[in-house]
Write a structure and sequence with these properties.
Subcellular location: Membrane
Membrane topology: Multi-pass membrane protein
Largest sheet: 2 strands, antiparallel
InterPro entries: GPCR_Rhodpsn_7TM (IPR017452)
Strand content: under 5%
Number of strands: 2
Low-confidence stretches: 201-206
Distance between the termini: 60 Å
GO molecular function, one term: G protein-coupled receptor activity
Mean pLDDT: 88
Protein name: G-protein coupled receptors family 1 profile domain-containing protein
Oligomer: single chain
CATH topology: Rhopdopsin 7-helix transmembrane proteins
Radius of gyration: 21 Å
CATH superfamily: Rhodopsin 7-helix transmembrane proteins
Length: 300
Amino acid sequence: MSLTILGNEIVVYTGSVFLAIGIFGNIGNIYIFSRLSTYRRTPSIFHYLIASMCNLHVMLFQLIPLVITSNYNFDLSRTSIVWCKMRTYFTTSITPISFTCVCLATIDQFFATSQNDRIRRFSHIKIAYRCVVITTLFWLIHGISGAVFYSNISGRCSSTDAIFNTYATIYVSVIVCLLPITVQSIFGWLVYRNLRQTIILAREQADRQATRMILMGVLLVLISISPYGANSIYLLTTANIQKDVNQLTKDYFAIIIVNLITYMYFIGSFYIFAFASPRFRQSIRRQIFWWFRSNNIRPT
């Protein structure tokens, strides 16, 4: 079996599993975070609510088409200019909203756990609302450029504009890779330092379980996005090197594996939150699996 065929098989089976757990997990996040006031009033969790909405969109409009293309060799973006532009717009607008909201969640936890009262005041739900509105508007406007420059060219959904392609390369390297990793690493460490230095104050001012959830989210970003960043650097540094068919096949297979690892970011938050927070697990039992309790009640 060639690496190309093996890669497609991995996408079909792994992608299908990711779809199932990703759709369930993101819907679970959305349901719990929007239903319980204790979560709705927590700025960092509100950011994750918006991120989960974006992640669900990624499942439906990016991962499903990827699985279909790998299984049936059918890509609607190759034949439909409307879908080509829509998919590009969604990719360049919805995905960065998710990354930005997760970064904002970690920054908010830095504010919430700070010993400085002035800094703690920045952790406020109204500020979170404003940040989300600004973030959403910015990235929705940003996505228009992709829809303008992408089109069906020689049976592919791509752009031939050299300037835009250069910008797209920088965008992927910075927004998708460098920025989330850098922000999460720096502010994740600052949150941890705040908790170590002001343990009593942190208990009084911050939701400890929410903080653990956010720190686990930092770990998820680092694990899932770092391989994509490393592979992007490799592809950029070897872009002008002549490669034989065997090397190109290996590069293609590596891209498949790295992309699947990246999807762990979009599917994993629900499960790491359940691992990190007893209160979140209790919310899952009460809000999602309530029918288990109903079925266990037997009439006497």
